[in-house]
Amino acid sequence: MSESALNEYIPAAGVTMFTTTWCGYCRNLKRMMDAEGIEYREVNIEETPGTAEIVESFNGGNQTVPTLIFPDGSAATNPRIDEVRSRLGA
């Protein structure tokens, strides 16, 4: 994975959330972020070329979702809503 590929997904605000359509954890976290008004860009790793590799780079080669990227370029895998809120300073 190139650094420029990753940079495309580092958000200026909110988070980038890598998901799949079948992921229950993804649906739950999206619901909670919607309720809290947390901005996110959803990217389905099964539909967007190159994004599964980005997720793998943060998860020891595994395609574990949800994986979130924060504005500082850090990532969290399957975080709780309080961690998302805290890392965004909300």
Reading side by side through the largest sheet, how are the strands ordered? 2-1-3-4
Assembly of the depicted chains: single chain
Q: What separation lies between the terminal Cα atoms? A: 31 Å
Radius of gyration of CA atoms, rounded to a whole number: 12 Å
Quick rundown:
This protein has 90 residues and is an alpha+beta fold. It contains 4 helices and 4 strands, in the order αβαβαββα. The protein has a single domain (3-84), classed as 3-Layer(aba) Sandwich (Glutaredoxin), CATH 3.40.30.10.
Please characterize this protein's 3D structure.
This is Mycoredoxin. Residues 15-70 form the Glutaredoxin domain. InterPro entries: Glutaredoxin, Thioredoxin-like_sf, Thioredoxin_CS. This protein has helices at 3-7, 24-36, 51-58, 81-87; strands at 15-19, 40-44, 67-69, 75-77. The protein is α+β, with helices and mostly antiparallel strands and 90 residues long. It has one domain (3-84): Glutaredoxin (3-Layer(aba) Sandwich), CATH 3.40.30. A 4-stranded mixed sheet has the order 2-1-3-4, with helices on both faces. Helix 2 (24-36) links the parallel strand 1 (15-19) and strand 2 (40-44). The longest helix has 13 residues, at 24-36. The radius of gyration is 12 Å and the shape is globular. The mean pLDDT is 94.
